[in-house]
């Protein structure tokens, strides 16, 4: 309720993040990333989320996944897929230096398609690769590109051949996942798809939740803590 003091304190903090100070003020720092007021302002209603906000939020999800009771999550950054699709495995081989991505349960791949954010999710437990697009476009070729990457990564890092035929690739249909009702919320949808998936929860939010999610994300990024 609006009378809840915690809620009131949050609201005033969120408003202050948007309204007071200079664009270059640093509001949060973690995961080798610096988030400025200007970055945070992309979370205002109808703002387009930028790479820093997306990557910072993915960092928070990975951090949370280290706690008891959560699936182990690995997240690539938002530049990974464009690099992979333009160069193949060779171009991104060093990105996983010192990491065995196959030791995780879930791999998140946020994807930037010129002016649209989408999400690819690898579930290593189920051997599935799913593509989530809040505008309902299919990403079968993206699933295939990532499967090919996983095959090469497995061969190179673990000397193990993946059996492609054991894997299921699927672009989520518009009846399976919520769809955005404007041209601005794709980044928030991607963050929330990732949030629900990284808790093994069914995706039950709707476009009506977007204004609330945006404000909540401001608080979470500033405090480096998911509510």
UniProtKB/TrEMBL annotation:
- Pfam families attached here? Peptidase_C48 (PF02902)
Highest taxon in the source lineage: Eukaryota
Task: List each copy of the Ubiquitin-like protease family profile domain by range.
Answer: 33-197
List the coiled-coil residues: none
Q: Which keywords describe this protein according to UniProt?
A: Hydrolase, Protease, Thiol protease
Q: Which residues form the signal peptide?
A: none
One Gene Ontology BP term is:
regulation of primary metabolic process
SUPFAM superfamilies linked to this entry? Cysteine proteinases (SSF54001)
Entry GO CC: nucleus
Q: Read off the InterPro entries from this record.
A: Papain-like_cys_pep_sf (IPR038765), Peptidase_C48_C (IPR003653)
**Mind listing the GO molecular function terms for this protein?**
deSUMOylase activity
Q: Which family does it belong to?
A: Belongs to the peptidase C48 family.
Q: What is this protein called?
A: SENP2 protease
- Species of provenance: Emberiza fucata
The encoding gene: Senp2
């Amino acid at each position: 309720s609006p009378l809840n003091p915690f809620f009131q304190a949050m609201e005033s903090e969120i408003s202050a993040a948007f309204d007071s100070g200079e664009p270059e003020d640093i509001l949060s720092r973690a995961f080798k990333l610096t988030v400025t007021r200007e970055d945070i302002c992309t979370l205002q209603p109808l703002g387009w989320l930028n790479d820093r906000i997306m990557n910072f939020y993915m960092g928070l999800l990975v951090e949370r996944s280290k706690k008891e009771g959560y699936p182990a999550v690995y997240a690539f950054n938002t530049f990974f897929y464009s690099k992979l699709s333009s160069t193949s495995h060779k171009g991104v081989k060093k990105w996983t230096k010192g990491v065995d991505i196959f030791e995780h349960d879930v791999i998140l791949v946020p994807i930037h398609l010129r002016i649209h954010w989408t999400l690819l999710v690898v579930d290593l437990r189920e051997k599935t690769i799913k593509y989530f697009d809040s505008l309902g476009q299919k990403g079968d070729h993206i699933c295939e590109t990532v499967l090919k990457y996983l095959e090469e990564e497995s061969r190179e890092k673990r000397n193990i051949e993946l059996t492609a035929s054991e894997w299921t690739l699927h672009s989520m249909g518009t009846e399976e996942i919520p769809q955005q009702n404007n041209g601005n919320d794709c980044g928030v949808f991607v963050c929330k798809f990732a949030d629900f998936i990284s808790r093994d929860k069914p995706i039950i939010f709707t476009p009506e939740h977007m204004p609330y999610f945006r404000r909540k994300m401001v608080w979470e990024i500033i405090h480096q803590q998911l509510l």
